[in-house]
DNA sequence: GAACAATACGGAGACTGTCTCCGTTTAGCA
DNA sequence: TGCTAAACGGAGACAGTCTCCGTATTGTTC
């Protein structure tokens, strides 16, 4: 990649991160281009679809996901606390900007999604937490890990669109956690 | 209301129901107007916001909600079955077209939403089912009815955006139901 | 049944966002 | 320094939302 292309690429990603955080997933891409000081053509050449841009933004996010799961697994306390804590972290991770919970959760099951690999990392982090509980023998056997992602993703999606705070989300996560443990 | 206005109003609602079912909540309103044989001005005079049109469409839906809850309450079987059956009906009711689960669930908590009264009917139906279980003493006490709507609405939203079928939704509803019962 | 408000219609067009095409510019190599 | 492949960027096509306002229709009054 040529130096000027690299420069523009980085600048667009940087600006997009900012704009998406401010205005949510639906922010105008021409606006992103303008703020980055490039033409729309340049933006669309680098990122043909909105999701390609989202994908690039999420590079640093991926690292945080793994790290967060590590921390959750190191958590001292009951299994229920462990799970609940992970769920809260999970919701936080996928709720970085408006519209994100729905996008990430549906991308998880879509083989054609450009951000699928990123979501896979999240799914794997979730697997690790569930596997730990399964080994402790406290997890019900008949639920697949992806269903758990969907349940928690569903809660996050509703919280996002209804603008609920963490305090309102907690009881819902408790219900899901209690439904999963035996 | 003048006769011609009435005629157009009814026609727009009829056509919109069709178009929304075909193309989801995001269908073009000018397209609705065109198919109804009226100008966009006419459509927007009758329905200034997209949700006003949705509201009108939902008139008949409201009756079905109450009826469905009645049937669910008449259901013979265990409390768990009753709840699970209601949840499945609930998901069906709010998943009439693409995008609807999210809209309906977030409208439920939004005092300014034009379709709030319609959602209220759904919330009340849900209340009746939960009240029945509460009287049987099988429901955990610390969860508010609206949280239950959000949980089930969250599942429906994800199912909608991931295009899951009823078979994939069921286990998630089981988790929620088991988390709610004690 | 003619005249006249009041009411409603509908389409042109302003505005916003998406995305492409292609003439122009630039980087980097020989 | 000159050349060419790579990249730029903006004009503009296209689609959707929504409004304004001149025109047409309704139904009432005499």
TrEMBL record, chains A, B:
Domain HTH tetR-type: residue ranges: 6-65
Listed SUPFAM superfamilies: Homeodomain-like (SSF46689), Tetracyclin repressor-like, C-terminal domain (SSF48498)
DNA-binding region, residue range(s): 28-47
Keywords (A to Z) from UniProt: DNA-binding, Transcription, Transcription regulation
PROSITE patterns recorded: HTH_TETR_2
Keyword Transcription regulation: yes
One Pfam assignment: TetR_N
Superkingdom of origin organism: Bacteria
Protein name: TetR/AcrR family transcriptional regulator
